[in-house]
Amino acid sequence: MNWLYIVGIILFLLGLMFSIALHELGHLVPAKIFGVRVTQYMVGFGSTAWSRRKGETEYGIKWIPFGGYIRMIGMLPPRPGDDPTKLRSNATGPFQGLIESARDAAQEEVLPGDDDRVFYRKKWWQKVIIMSGGPLMNFVLAFVFSTILLVGIGLPVEAPIVSSATNPCVSPVFEQRAACEPGDQPTPAAQAGLKPGDHMVSFNGATIGSWDDAIRLIRSHGAGPVKLGIVRDGKPMTLNVTLTTQDRPNLEDPDKIDKNVGFLGVLPTKVMEKQSVGQVFGHMGELTARVAGSIVNLPEKMVGVWHAAFSSEERDPEGPVGVVGAGRMGGEILASDLSNEEKIAIFVNLLAGFNLAIGMFNLIPLLPLDGGHIAGGLWEGLKRAYAKVLRRPKPTYVDIAKVLPLTYAVAVVMMIMAGLLVYADLVNPLTLTR
């Protein structure tokens, strides 16, 4: 196995752990600002690889780099009406017993003097800020990665620069071949003396600013002589070129053929073109729309993953991919024949998309996701505002423990989905080539 492939997987996992660490930091900082006692800050799951206690919080890294958490005391309120000086009556029913067991576990972490440091006692807007901090950090990271990609590295574009892969020959039936064969004729570009690296800047006096400009001007001209302005080795030149005509695929619809369009016989050069900061917002908007669509269609897409995992069907390139699959993509990127700039660009874009997906998925208003706690905080704020307007007694805290059965059901579904993605990523992975 290519060692670059292994390095790519490791780099992606490090980038993922960095993103998870900052996600949890987005929860940790406001929790501490608002006085919630945080007992643990962990990156990863499973057994602990390393940890260190600082003050009242244990900071650590676990061996399985697929998530993370912070442990805040008092996430669940005690049962309404409980008298701590009396024995609690036995709960009846499996769901009620489940809820009360969770309440007991939550209360075990609450020490004397912690009454004002439990999560459930905080103001509704403080709860919303604490739980929104993680997804918000993912959105910030997605924006930062997108800015690095567009402004710092650039996007690959086809420039009107003659590529070294350009073939100087064309067949007698006007097919440009991959290599010259007996009987082939020189292309108009070769006859005029165009060389790899020549930068086309004008066409019969019209400015060429992009490859699209060049190809449209050439096609619309048809056969005949033109004056082609180029820059070669930093020096401007004008070449006399006699275009021929060919049947070429339509620029908008490759399945259609345009008859007798102008033909020069050159290929463009891919370059990394840096974008403006303003274009980052447009890129984020497009990326957000794609990720949101993927989340909305997730149940349907997971059915496709199931079929692909247990058959020879190809994976949907627009379908979901798990951490294992994304790690394999990271390895594939680094082991590819792309230029170093292109590798970095694709890698950074992968991390940007993953952070945006993590942030948006966590905003789904279901427990155990952050969005479930955010929804509980907003509902509490709405209830209290309603009571204030009607001059009613202030309502008690929203008791999210009541939806714990649904929470466990959602958690089971999420684990099944994660397991299916891992299996599909191993037996039928998505690759960069499909």
Through-space gap between termini:
21 Å
- Main sheet record: 5 strands, antiparallel
Number of strand elements: 11
Could you say which overall geometry the principal axes of the C-alpha atoms support? elongated
Rg, Cα atoms, Å: 30 Å
Helix content: 40-55%
Mean pLDDT across the residues is: 85
Low-confidence stretches: 83-93
SSE arrangement:
Blueprint: H1 3-33, E1 38-54, E2 57-72, H2 94-108, H3 124-153, E3 155-159, E4 169-170, E5 185-186, H4 188-192, E6 199-203, E7 206-207, H5 211-221, E8 224-232, E9 235-249, E10 257-263, E11 269-273, H6 277-296, H7 298-309, H8 323-335, H9 340-362, H10 370-389, H11 404-427
Antiparallel strand pairs: 1-2, 3-11, 4-5, 6-7, 6-8, 8-9, 9-10
Q: What would you note in describing this structure?
A:
- With 434 residues, this protein is α+β, with helices and mostly antiparallel strands.
- The protein has 2 domains: 3-149 and 353-427, no CATH class; 158-273, Pdz3 Domain.
- Helix content is 47%, strand content 20%.
- The protein has helices at 3-33, 94-108, 124-153, 188-192, 211-221, 277-296, 298-309, 323-335, 340-362, 370-389, 404-427; strands spanning 38-54, 57-72, 155-159, 169-170, 185-186, 199-203, 206-207, 224-232, 235-249, 257-263, 269-273.
- A 5-stranded antiparallel sheet has the order 7-6-8-9-10. It has a two-stranded antiparallel sheet with strand order 1-2. A two-stranded antiparallel sheet has the order 3-11.
- Helix 1 packs across helix 8 (323-335).
- The longest helix has 31 residues, at 3-33.
- It is elongated.
- The protein starts with a helix and ends in a 7-residue tail after the last helix.
- The model is unreliable at 83-93 (pLDDT under 50).
